[in-house]
Q: What sequence folds into this?
């Protein structure tokens, strides 16, 4: 990083200046933060400095992460079927759980608000002196950061409960919504209170309005309890101890929870199995019918059974080959009168009262493992001249199950309950 730091120093990278001070970059151990004007020429300068550094050091920049995730390469152009927006939602909402930049920014904003209200910080004091409250209407000249904090505060207003404390209550008298969820400014035209904090109206643990006896909201305000001692001015409704994840999940609170996520991301999940099941449930596998919709024509016949048209629903598990495999591993599935879909298999296990939870978890694992290996078999059959019988598929899956489960705590019980899987 020292070499890169020197590279930036000798380049024409345009710095950020304030008075006599100019800042180009901040170097700390192996990390470097670069500050500069957001311009095309500056981006070119930075790119050039990075390229020179890469040529000399052999260290390349890891860019285009999403492309890497989908394609395994930053250079290859390939088709991906699940949108990045869908991918970057929490697992319980049907995504892969990768956080989006917007969600992280939002969670950082709420985190900042949390510290602003609940802890004595210099930056909090300074912002309070400058802007009074995030709930005060924005000044035109307010900084971008404050505008962001203010918009974040309005988004989480319903999730925050404000409390008045007898000691050093720094809440804004007029703008913070401490009066049973409302701000005094919403209840009355009390703009004379503009720059006051709540603590200025509290004396010896009681409300004190000696100079404001004609104030119209006195009854309503004095009804707000003053809590003793140093307490958090703000609490999060629904969690006594909110953490960054609480704020992050709030960003996605408008999204519906998908019931199947617990089948995919269960306790004993193997990442590669679950990733393929996830793709299956979101129509993300490149079967003949899905490719045909994008004008990519391949042989439409399912390579596993060589009888019917290939689609995701057919492959899992309406295909004679795949259903023979899964029902051989878990004979319970022979109860289906018609070939089931993947979700029906999961729901069947989920609703089966005779199975213990650890047995259900095992079944989810077996289904996920089966989907993964059957998809591999399908690809082998489609792209090579090899042959594959139901028994071949079953043998490979049983081997994978044995390798994964040999050290599980209840393995002996599982062997008795599901002998065909071992
Ligand atoms: Zn088939």
A:
């Amino acid at each position: 990083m020292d070499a890169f730091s020197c590279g930036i120093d000798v380049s024409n990278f345009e710095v950020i200046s304030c008075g006599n001070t100019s800042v180009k970059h901040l170097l700390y151990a192996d990390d470097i933060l670069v500050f500069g004007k957001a311009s095309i020429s500056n981006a070119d300068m930075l790119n050039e400095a990075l390229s020179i550094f890469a040529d000399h050091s052999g260290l390349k920049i890891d860019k285009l992460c999403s492309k890497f995730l989908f394609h395994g390469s930053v250079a290859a152009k390939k088709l991906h079927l699940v949108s990045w927006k869908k991918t970057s939602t929490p697992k319980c909402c049907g995504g892969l759980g990768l956080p989006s930049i917007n969600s992280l920014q939002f969670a950082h904003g709420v985190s900042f608000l949390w510290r602003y209200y609940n802890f004595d910080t210099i930056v909090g004091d300074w912002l309070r002196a400058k802007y009074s409250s995030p709930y005060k209407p924005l000044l035109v000249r307010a900084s971008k950061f404050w505008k962001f904090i203010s918009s974040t505060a309005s988004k989480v207003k319903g999730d925050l409960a404000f409390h008045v404390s007898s000691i050093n209550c720094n809440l804004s008298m007029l703008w913070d919504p401490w009066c049973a969820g409302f701000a005094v400014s919403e209840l009355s035209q009390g703009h004379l209170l503009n720059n006051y904090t709540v603590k200025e109206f509290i004396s010896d643990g009681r409300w004190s309005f000696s100079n404001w006896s004609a104030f119209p909201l006195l009854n309503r305000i004095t009804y707000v309890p003053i809590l003793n001692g140093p307490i958090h001015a703000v609490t999060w409704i629904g969690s006594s101890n909110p953490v960054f994840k609480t704020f992050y999940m709030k960003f996605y609170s408008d999204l519906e929870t998908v019931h199947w996520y617990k089948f995919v991301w269960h306790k004993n999940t193997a990442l590669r199995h679950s990733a393929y099941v996830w793709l299956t449930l979101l129509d993300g596998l490149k079967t003949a019918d899905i490719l045909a919709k994008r004008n990519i024509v391949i042989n439409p016949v399912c390579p596993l059974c060589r009888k019917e048209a290939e689609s995701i629903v057919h492959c899992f598990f309406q295909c004679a080959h795949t259903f023979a495999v899964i029902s051989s591993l878990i004979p319970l599935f022979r109860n289906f009168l018609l070939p089931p879909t993947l979700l029906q298999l999961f729901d069947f296990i989920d609703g089966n009262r005779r199975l213990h939870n650890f047995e259900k978890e095992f079944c989810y694992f077996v289904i996920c493992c089966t989907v993964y290996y059957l998809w591999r078999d399908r690809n082998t059959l489609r792209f090579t001249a090899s042959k594959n019988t139901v028994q071949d598929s079953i043998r490979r899956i049983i081997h994978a199950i044995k390798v994964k489960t040999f050290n599980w705590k209840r393995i002996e019980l599982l062997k008795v309950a599901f002998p065909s899987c071992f």
